[in-house]
Amino acid sequence: MKTVMGMMNLQENDALIKEMTARRPLATIPFAGRYRLIDFGLSSMVNSGIENVGILLPAKSRSVLDHLRSGKDWDLARRHDGLFYLPDIKADNDAYDGDLKNFYRHLDFLQHSTQQYVLLMGGQVIYNMAFEKVLRFHQNTGADITMVYSLQPEENVAGGTVIETSENGMVTDIAKQPVVYEDAKVFMGIYLMERKVLIDLIKRAYERGGSDFLIDGIMRFQDKYSIYGFCHDGYVAHINSVGSYYRASMDMLQPHIRQELFTAEQRVYTKTKDEPPVQYKKNAAAKNSLIANGCVIEGSVENSILFRGVKIGKGVKVKNSIIMQKCDLQQDALVENVICDKNVVITQGKWLKGASNYPLIVEKDVVI
144-171 pLDDT, tens per residue? Predict the structure, then answer.
């Protein structure tokens, strides 16, 4: 994979998950107790031997810069190649209007790179995969562009992009936000192509008035390129709404899914934080939950995910919930089917309960 460079496009439409992206992009939403969504794609790149990665930053980029920093935790703080930030020019309050302009503005990064191929992806999909198989497939088929997809159950298709392929794997149709059907081939937002093909595609689409890479680039000029689909058969979760985030988070409580995502061979890296082990006080109880370092538990936690530094007071009951970093749930509070963003305080005796299929969200820094 020394011949492959990586690009992560973090300009993604977050209209369906605004409650959690008011101050951060999709890619840095916290996940599974100590990670961010961006960690999964970036770690898969690094584990596959990719050493040159460009990050196309969104307008709200502060949390991306704070999380990735020099790239040291992913072994990307290098003298040659390594991690490169490609900034955006839009203001924080600008609506999503496509990503093609940002690609075009940073063509020089592609032109000055030395790798033959580009692995392009977004930051909102959960998976753990080795990209060596994708490269071999791409070379064996002689494709101009390879699109990676997964077979998804019906409830995970809404809002995504679906492709259809022939028997030999060639993509015959691409549909964005299609009618839902079971076992659809849902595109994972991952492309592999030669660097010169990507440069040509960006120029061709932008200089003809395009604004969206997928619609105005890939879909518009589909007939001009040989496009193949590669099927990833491991666990995949597309995070594009509050419901999909909640379902994927609850999936992490299933041991077989955890073991598949967090394997010893393909580690998932994240920003290192040194915190003490969890403290379980007298009368504390925890069942089927993920609890990160630095937490102090005095009440009960069931079927829930607690991030670093969470405090669960005496008599507190937490069930089917996601409690993010530095939250404080005070004595006798009850929380069920709730997502608490960072630094939330639930004061003594308050009860919060959401629906089992649509959790209640408490936004960052709120005191209830």
Answer: 999 999 997 756 566 689 999 999 999 9
Query: Nearest 5 degrees, angle CA 57-CA 197-CA 221?
Result: 90
- Tell me the C-alpha distance between 147 and 134, whole Å: 9
CA distance 325 to 14: 22
Decide the pairing of beta strands 290-291 and 305-306: parallel
The string of pLDDT tens digits covering residues 188-227 is 999 999 999 999 999 999 999 999 999 999 999 999 999 9
Identity of the amino acid at 362 = V
Domains along the chain? Answer: 4-261 (3.90.550.10), 279-362 (2.160.10.10)
In angstroms, the CA 62 to CA 70 distance is 14
